[in-house]
Amino acid sequence: MKRLAVAGFLLVLAAALFLRCGALGQRPLHNDEAINAFKVWQLWDRGEFRYDPEEYHGPALYYGSLPVMALAAWWTGRPPDGVAMRSVALVFGIALLLVLLLAVDGLGWGVILGAALWTAVSPAFVYYSRYYIHEVPLVFFTALTLAALWRYSRRPSFFWAGLAGAGLALMYATKETFVFAVAAALPAWLISVWAGVRREQGGGRVGLSVLVSSAGGLLRAVPRGHWVAAAGCGGAVWLMLFTSFFTNASGPWDALRTYLIWLERAGGASPHIHPWTFYWQRLGWFHLRGGPVWTEAWILGLAVTGGLAVVVSRRLNPEQHRVGWFLLGYSLLLSLAYAVIPYKTPWCLLGFYHGYILLAGVGAWYWVTLSSRLWVRVVLVAVGLVGAGHLAVQSGRANGEFAADYRNPLVYGHTAGDVVNLLEQVEAITRVSGEGRQMAIQVMAPGSGYWPLPWYWRHYERAGWWDRVPENPWSPVIVSAVALKAGLEERSNRAWLQVGMFELRPRFFVEVYVEAGLWKRFLAARAAER
User: What is the DSSP string of 271-329?
Assistant: First the structure.
């Protein structure tokens, strides 16, 4: 039976790789991806990184990217590109499945296989496991920390204590929102302690004094040396990352004061303000005219089943019961926190949704074991596989024809496909100019709205970036947001010509101006090619 379970897990892992690996470079980089790529490229190329408490989140993603980038550079024989960056998210997405194996002995192969399957095919997890942002690494480090604490509860040791401390530090160094996971995990742990005591007593009321005594006894049972190991490993990891390996003395202070900045944004000082239903619309039922229906109701339904099984069923073993109560409390509290905060972006749902996916593993196991008859179990497994297939098809469409389409619930302010045409035109003009990457380019957009272009044009040494039209905007190629109303053709008395307009993001357009003589040479070269 164990061999069959291992084989099933390997099949799930293969499905996860299949859904995540194809055509990583198909869609252009989102502006957030491009900013992260540009920063890690600076770290790779120049060894430069300094934590910024106002933007870009923590350093763990950037330093954690270096091994994958080195492997990509060795494999391809060229500097890392956008595909290499997205491969970093892919590695963390696959590692998220592997960390489940740390809980097999307590939760059982049935629960683990169910949780792994839903993680593998979930459109949200597949899509963002191909997205070079901080969210999937944050979910992975959170899962690693919780798994280490679980292992410690089963068999206390310096290793698991140290790993839990290091995992917590990596959560901190990944993204500021790790505090929500910690704030949800602490009361969820108390809920699991309460559930364990209640089960031991055969049901009935558990008083507050009993709960406090039980929780305090568990904490006091931890040897002092293990506390030191956790604090030492966590502190060392935290200090190394935020000081950029002891080259930035202000990093630790910046890591603390960042919460004053992000607290203001979470309260509403941001363009990403949405109602509390924002995440559930994307997970439960999302349909815009002309697009398909998107739903992860298979997972949500099984998560409800898993929660009900935890609350009312006696079929779960003590470990499943205790962990189930933790997952239920953790997921509900974390999703409540994200619902209440006005600031919302769709990838933020991964943190609490992972908890529901684990509950869905409990729910899947519960359904399959309701009957002892083999044919009933086979039918239930078949129904589950149909659901998994439906989710896999949605994942394929989300990362295929709808990869950058606003009708995809996971797409959020994504770079338009038209940017490829812009890049190709400027590259063609560059070849004609005779200056190569030494050709000057001026790019102008309000509020740094020109991203992801700085990533794609990082090799242009004379590129200028402006949030307004400068006094002297003239260069062979000029790219200006339509919103700036630059009117450079008239201002230059047609010494510069507007040669195109491109959509950078949905309803955000840029104009391209080219020096008249260069444009004539470009047209002549194009005519000669034809």
Answer: S-B--TTHHHHHHH-B--TTS--B--HHHHHHHHHHHHHHHH-S-S-HHHHHHHHHHHH
How many residues does this entry show for the chain? Answer: 530
Residues 377 and 448 reside in one and the same domain: no
Q: Answer yes or no: are the C-beta atoms of 291 and 407 closer than 8 Å.
A: yes
Asked if residue 509 and residue 474 are part of one domain, the reply reads yes
Domains contained in the chain, number: 2
pLDDT tens for each residue of 148-206: 999 999 999 999 999 999 999 999 999 999 999 999 999 999 999 998 888 877 776 77
pTM: 0.94
> Domain range holding 298?
2-217+224-398
For residue 243, the SS3 value is: coil
Alpha-carbon separation of residue 492 from 83, 376, 497 (angstroms):
40, 78, 9
Three-class HEC string of 427-467: HHHHHHHCCHHHCCEEEECHHHCCCCHHHHCCCCCCEEEEC
CB 473 within 8 A of CB 508: no
Q: Which residues contact 490 (CB under 8 A, 6 or more apart)?
A: none
Residue 246 sits in the same domain as residue 304: yes
